[in-house]
Amino acid sequence: MSETPPPILVVDDQEKLLRLVVMLMNRIGFPDVEGVTDGLQALERMRERRYALVIADLEMEPMDGIALLREIRADDALMNTPFILTEASFDFEDINVAHQAGADAFILKPFDMAVLKSKLKQVLNGKPRRREAPVAAETSLSMDFPMLGKF
């Protein structure tokens, strides 16, 4: 008997993209996927229910993906929730800021299914965070984001 896939929360202010991501997640084996259109709604849902993962768009209004991530990491009850940021393009500054805020991974839109599956496996099997021993971004960047290589 296989284990039931964990619940996932998707956050995107573009409703068509939100529905598409929810559908993709269902299609690859995650039947329990909820979608919301803004960061405030996401925080509200997360305080009502425990999610195994949040997938959020970087560019949203009124609360963008980084602000949502910072709120989650600052909340003791939510801080260990794995978090993936999505966007059509990332520049180095986006990646640096998101990494420092505690993002677990990035996925470019449109999603490549193999990359999506790989990132999901990596993030859902990750280790919980410990607030008392933050890891410096410089030392962990190449481990958490192998596509960036060593600095």
From TrEMBL:
Gene3D superfamilies attached to this UniProt entry: 3.40.50.2300
Lineage of source species: Bacteria, Pseudomonadati, Pseudomonadota, Alphaproteobacteria, Hyphomicrobiales
UniProt cross-references to SUPFAM superfamilies, sorted A to Z: CheY-like
Keyword Mitochondrion listed: no
The keyword Transcription belongs to this UniProt entry's keyword annotation: yes
Pfam family, one: Response_reg
PROSITE patterns noted in UniProt: RESPONSE_REGULATORY (PS50110)
UniProtKB keywords: Phosphoprotein, Transcription, Transcription regulation
This protein's name: Chemotaxis protein CheY
SMART domains referenced in this protein's UniProt entry, alphabetically: REC
Gene Ontology BP annotations: phosphorelay signal transduction system
Family annotation (InterPro entries): Bact_response_regulator (IPR050595), CheY-like_superfamily (IPR011006), Sig_transdc_resp-reg_receiver (IPR001789)
Modified sites of kind 4-aspartylphosphate: 57
Domain Response regulatory residues, every copy: 7-124
Source taxon at top rank: Bacteria
